[in-house]
Amino acid sequence: MKSKYKVLLTLFMAFVVQLGFAQTNTITGTVTDDGGVPLPGVNIVVKGTSSGTQTDFDGNYSIAASGNSILVFSYVGFKEEEVAVGTSTVIDMELIGGEMLEEVIINALGIEVNRATQASSVSDVAASAVQSSGETSIAKGLSGKASGVQIISSSGDAGSSAFIQIRGQSTITRSLQPLIVVDGIPISNDEVGAGVGGVTQQSRLGDLNPNDIADVKILKGASAAALWGARAGNGVIVITTKKGKGLGKGDLQVSISSTISFDQTNDELDTQNIFGQGSNGAYVGLTQANSWGDKISLRSGGPDEVDTSSLDYFVSRDGTTYYPIISKNSTEDFNNSNYDAVINQGLYLENNVSLSGATESGNYFMSVSDLKQDGIIDENDYNRVSLRLNGEFKLNDKIKFTGTSTYSQINSNRIQQGSNTSGLLLGLYRTPADFDMRNYLGTRYADGVVSTTNSQRSYRRGLGTLDGESPIYNNPLWTTNVQSNPNTVERYIMGGQFNYKATDWMTLIARAGLDHYTDERKNFFPKNSSEANGSGSATERLYTSTQTNIDFIAQGDLLISDRFNFGYLAGLNYNRRLSETRGGGYTNFILDSYKFFYTNATIANRSTVIGESEVRITAGYAQANLSFDDLLFLNLTGRAETASTYGDAKTFFYPSAEVGFQFDKLLGDQTTLSNGKLRLTYGQVGIEPAAYATNTYFVNAQGSEGYGPAYDAGAYDGSFVRSSVQGNANLEPEKKTEYEVGIDLGFFNNRATLSGTYYYNETTDALFTVAIPGSTGFSGRYANAASLENKGFELDLSVDVIKSEDFVWNVYGNFSTNQNEVTSLTGTESLFLNGFTGVSSRAVAGEPVGVLWGGRYARNDDNSLALDDLGFPTVALTEGVLGDPNPDWRAGVGTSISYKGFTLSTLFDASVGGDVWDGTNGALNNFGRTPETANEVTVSAADAQTIIAANGATLASRPQAVINADGTYTIRGNIRDFGAGPRLLDQAYYTGIGGGFGPVGEQFIYDGSWVKWRQLTLSYNFTNDKLKETLGLKNIELSLTGRNLLYWSKHDFGQDPESNLTGASNGRGLQYFNNPNTRSYLGTISINF
Amino acid sequence: MKNLYILTFLSIFIATSCSNYVEDLNDDPNQPVDAGLENIVQGVQLSNQFWQTGESNRTAMLWLNQATGSDRQYLALNDWNTAQSTIFDGIWNEAMVGTISQAQVLENKANMLGNTSTLGMAQVIEANAFGTLTSLFGDIPFEQVNKYEEFPNPVYQPQQEVYAGIQELLNTGIANLTDGAGDIPNDLVYTGSNEAWITAAYTLKARYFLHVKDYAAALSNAQQGISSADGDYKAYYDTTYGADFNPFYSFLVYDRPGYMSAADAYAPKLLDPSTTLYRGNPKTDESARFAFSYINGANLYNSGYELNFYSQFDWEEPDGKFGTNTDMPLITYGESLLIIAECQARLNGFDSGLQAYNTYRALLDTGYSIGVDNAGYNDLTFNYDAYTAADFAANGIENADGISQLDALLREIYEERYVYFNGHYESFVDMNRTNNIAEIQLKAGFSGNAERFVYPQVEVNGNTSIPTPLPGVQDPTPVNQ
Fold this sequence. Notes:
The structure holds two protein chains of two kinds. Chain A is mainly β. Chain A contains eleven helices and 63 strands.
C-alpha cells in the first residue's frame, strides 16, 4: 500500500515536473513479475546509449531519458521488454517470468546456451500448460501440445502410464521412450511389466510433481539430442524445475494451490440387454458362458421359480439365499446396475505448497505436494507425496554450487484388467444382462452343509464356488474388492553441480546426479479367485533401479571479433544403471487368509525370482558453436561413446551439425517479418543393445505353451539347457541418422509465428531377437538385423489475433505427419512385438512398424472371399498384415482469450488414420453380448427353408427360430451374403469364424481416427489491492477445467480409441477389455503470498 | 597455479578411470553359461514329454472327435479347416529347440566324455521327436537341424528320407546303449536302465516302420520292443502347478477351465455302456476304461461328457486319465502288442493276427492302461476276454456288417488303437495311414478330415526352404499319399 502511494505521488510529481521540462525527463516506475511481485536488480538501459540503472529492492527505478528514446528492461529468467518513452514519465513494467530468456535456452545437457545457435526443432511446452491440463502426470499433460509428439495413455486408471512417442518409432524392440533429463540429470521413465493382462502400470516420469516444473523442452531432432549418444535415439525431453527468484533480502514467496477433480468414464461400452444367459435361444443358468439365451421381455415376469428344497445353495453376506433356478421368470435387466457397481465417480484432491526466494548469493525453491486420487473404478487409487528442494549458492563471482533433490512416494492399488480372467471387464462385459452380480461374496452350502465360506458368486458360478473351483471369470466386484494389487514406490533424485568460472572464456562444471527408486508390488488373489483355479495365488516383486550420472564439462565463449563468436563445450560422461528384480510368490494356499505369508503354501508351491542388470556407458563429447554477425550459425557436436552392452567394448562416434540462417537480419524493416530463420541439421544418435546379450547362456529347463500349461525342471531334479536365444558377440548400438530442414517465421513483432520442419531419419542396425526357425536349433538370435525409416512434417502456428493491454486472444495449432517403414528385417517375415496369438502388433518388412497382424479370410484370385461348401467364409492358412495402427496425421488446435483477469482457453486434438483392433467387441460377439448379435430378423417361410446357418442347418430348423402368425420366421441374428446368397449369422457363426475367438482377426480391424476436446479452462486472477492489504495476499487465481470433455471417433468402439492395452510397450493399436479412459471436471485455487 | 594442479589431477583421474569403466560387465550375473551332462538329461526328457502331451495333442483330439471344443478359441478349433500355421508354433519350437537341439547338445557332451549310455538315450529321444514331427507334418528339416551357422534355412527332406534317417539314428542309439559306457544320470524315465531304453527304441522303430507300412520290419522290431508294463515310457507328472502338472489337467482345470470337454464326442460314446455306439459286447466290458477316460454328466464346466481330470490331489477322487499328476504314456508295451497284432494279421493272416490281438486283450484284462496303476479304475468292472474267429465272421459280435474276417479284425484293432491312444498322436497318424479303417465318426458339418498339421508360422516367417505352396490341413503327408 505504501509503495502504491509512493507511485501515485511520484506520478503526480512527474506530471508536474514534465510540465516544466519537456526535453529530458526522469522516468520512474516499478518493475514487477507477472504475479505483481517487485523485482530487484532489473537492468534498465536507454537503448543505444550507455546510460542505465537497476531497480532497488522494492522494484523501483528512476532514469533520465528523452521522449524519443526507448527503455530496455532485462532481467535473468525473464523476457526482455522494450518501451518507447514518449510523453510518459511513469513506466511500470511487468516482466513475464517462468520462461527462459528468449536468447538463452537449455540444451540437452541442461546447460544454458544461446538459442540462436541451435537449429534443430525443439518443442517448448509451457509448464503452465502441463499444470493446467488436469492430468496428474507430466507425460499425459503433454497431450496435443507439441507437433510430432504422440502421447497415448494405457487407460484412465489412477496413476496409469502414458506412452510418449516422438516422430514415430525409430526402433523395433528397444524402448520407444525418449530420454528424460531433469535439471541436467537423466532419470528413469521405466514402465515395468506392461502386457496384455495384469494391472495397468505406472510410468516413472509420473513420480514427478508437475507443479515443480518451470519448463519442458522436447528435443525432437537427432542433432539436438546428439550429446546423449546412444541414449537419445528416441529424442530427449529436457525438464527444468523451478528456482527461487525475484525477491531481495531473503523475502519469502509462498504459493499454495489446491485442485479438486471429479472424474468419470468418457465412454460406456454398449452391451445388449435383450437376450439372457443361455444357448440356442433357451435360458441356461449356473455355468453357461454365453448370452445366447431366451428373450428377456418374453418371460412371464415376477420372481424366478427356484428349488428351495435343494441342498446346494448360496447365502450371500446380506443374507440373501440363492437356490438353483427351475424357471427363469424375471424380466429384470441388470446391465446398468452391474456396471455402476464397479465403475462410477472418481475424485482427486491435490494440495501444493511451495516456498521460494532469492538473495544476492543464491536462491532456493522448496515444495511439498500431496495428491490423493480415487479412480473411477472401485478401489483403484493413487496417492503421491512429493518433496523438492532446489538451491543455488554463489560463493563468489567464480564459484557456484547448485543442488537439487526430490523425494516422491507413491502408494497405489491397481485393478486387474485386460486379457485376464481375474480382470475387471472380462467378467463385467461378459456377465449376462439378466444376472445381478451384486451379491458376490457369501457361503456355499453343498449337500446341506457349509462347504466354502468365502465363496465367490459369479455368473458362471451362480451358486458360488466350491473349494478348489474357479469362478471361470471373476465377479467384477471380487476383482475390485477382494483381490488387491498394491504398490509402493519410493523415489529419490538428487543432483549437485559445481561451477567454477576459471577464466572469462572457460567455466568448469562438475555435475553428479543420482536417481534411485524402489517399486514394491504385490498381487494377491485369495482363494476362490479365478487365478490358479481358485486355489489362491500371491506374488510380490521389488524392482530397484539406480542411475548414476557424472559429467565433467568445460564451457565457454570467445568473441573473436565484433562479428564472429565462438562457443564451445567439452565434457566427459559416466553413466551407470543398475536394476534389480527380486521377489517371489506362492500358490495353492493352505489357509484362506488375506494376509501375505509364504508359509501359507507348501514348499513346492513357493517360488522366488531374481534378476540383476548393470549397464555402463562412458563417453567424451564436444560441441562448437560459431556465429557470424547473428546471421549465420554453425553448431557441431560429437560424442564418442563406449558401453558395457556392446560386443568387444567398441567405441562409436555420434556426430551432428546444425546450420542456422537468420535471414530476417538481411531485411531492413523487421516490423512485418520480425523473425526469419532457416534451419538445416544432420545428426546421428543411437539406441543401446539390451544388457548381457552377447553370450549364449544355459537356462533352467522350462517351457510353456500359449494357453498356460508349463513345465519346470525345478519340480524334478533340476536341469539346465542351452538357451533358445543365441548370444551375439558382435552387438552394436542401433544408429539413427536424421536430416532436418525447417523454417521459423515471426510476423508483426512475433505476434504471429509459424514454424515448419521436415525430417527424415533412418535407423540402421536395429536390434531384435530374430525369430529364427526352430529347425536351426534356436528360436531366436539377438542381432542388429533391421532398418527402418521415418519421414514427416511438423507445423506449429501461433497468432495473437488481438493483443491489447486488457484483451489478448491467441490461437495456436500444431500439425504433424509421420510415415514409417521397416525397410529391412533380416531373417524373418514378421516380428511379434506385443498382443495375442490371434492378433498382434508386429514389425514386417515394407510395412510401418507395429502393424496389426493376424488371421485373414482365405480369398480367391479376384480377392473375393473363398467360401466353404456352406457359403461361409474360410480362413487363410497363414497370417498376414491386417492394418496399420500409426495415424496418418495428428493435429492440435487451441485458443486462449484473456480479458483483464479472466482467461478462457481450450484445446482440441485429433489423430487421423490409425487402425485399431477391436478385440473387445470381437470377443463379446462370441458371447452374444454385443448389440450386433442381439439383432432380430424376420424372413418369409420360403426363405427360412433356404437360408442356412454356419452349421449347415436351415433357419427354420434352428431351435431359436420363432414362427409368426403369418408364417414368417423371426430369429435372432443377422443375414449377410458372403457371395453365395444370404446366410444366417447366429450363434453358430459368432461362436465360430465370426467371433473374436475364431481365427479371423481381420474382421475386427477398424479405423481408429478420433477428435478430442481435450481441455476447456476458465480462470480468474484476483490482484486486488484490498486483498493485498487485508489478507497480505499477492494474488488469488481460480480456475475451472474440463478435461477430455468429448470425443468423436470414426468407428464406434464403445471405448476411447486413444488407449492401448499394452501400455508403453512396442505393441500398438490393441483394444481388449482395456480399463476405460476418463473425463474430468477440475477446480483449482492458487494463492500467492 | 592451483587451477593447473586441479586440472592435471582431474585429467589423470578421468583418463585412468575411463579405460576399464565399461569392460567385463556384460555377463549376466543370474545365468550360467554351461551345465554338465548330468544336469542336461532331464531338460531333454522334460521337453520331450511336455510337447508330446500338450497343445497339439488336444487339437488332434478335437479333430478326431475324442474331445470337443466348448468355449472361446476352442469352439472354432473344432473345425480343422480353421487351422492356421500359428497354432503349431509351440509344438514345433519345443520339439526342434527344446528337445532335438538340446538332445544334440547332450550328445556332444556325452561324446566328449565317452558316455555312450547317455549318448544312446539322447539319440532315442531325438529320434522320437523327429518321428512324431514327420508323422504329423510330413517333410521336415532333418540333417540340417541345429546347425544355424551353416544352415540358417534348413532344407525340408522328403518324409521317407526322414523316416529312414530316424531308423538309422535309432540303430546308432541302440548300439550306443548296448555299448553302455557310463551311466545315464538323473534319468527320469528309466532310472538309468540301458535295457529299458533299448526295448523302447525297438518299439519306436516298430512304430516308424508301421508308419511307412513296412510291416515285416515293424513286426520284428516290435517283438524286440517293450515286453512288460514296467517298460512303458511315460511322461511323469506331479502336483505343482506351472511346473510338473499334467499339461492336460493344467489346461482343462487351471488354465482354461471349460474350453475343452467331450460333449457330443465320438470316443466317449464308444466307451459309454449306455449308448448305442458302445463297443462293449459279451466279451468286453468298458465300464472302467470309460470312467477312467471320461466324466459323465457332472456339469462341472459343461454339460455332457468331460475328459476325466479328476484326481486325489484337487478333487479327492481316484486319478483319471487326465488327472493332476497322472503319468501319460508315450511308448508302451500295449503299443508293441498292438503293432504285433496288426502286422501278424497283415503278414501271416487272420489267425496269427487274432492270436496276437488276444495277447493284447489279455494284457488289458489285467487292468493295464485303464487306471494309473495298471490295475483298473475305481473298482469298476472291466472285461477283455479272448475273441474267437467266429466273433469276426459275418454276423459275429465284431462283424455285424459282414465284411471279411481280416478286415473286421483290423477294424477292431484300429478301433482299439483309437481308444488306447486317446490323447496320443498315434491315433491321429492311424486315422490317416489307414484311411480310417476304424470308421471313426468325425464331427459333422465340416468338410474333409485333418490329414496333417500345418507348417508353423515360425518356419513360414524365417525359413526360406519351407515348401511352397504350403500344404493345407487336408493334404495327406507323402507316406499316406
